[in-house]
Amino acid sequence: FPYQTVTGNFAKVIHGLNANQLTDQVIQRSKRMILDTLGVGLLGTSTEVCHKVTQYSKIYSSDLSSTIWGHLDFRLPPLYAAFVNGVAVHSMDFDDTWHPATHPSGAVLPAVIALSEAFPQKKKISGLDLLLAFNVGIEVQGRLLHFSREARNIPKRY
Question: In what residue span(s) does the MmgE/PrpD N-terminal domain sit (predicted)?
Answer without folding.
Answer: 9-151
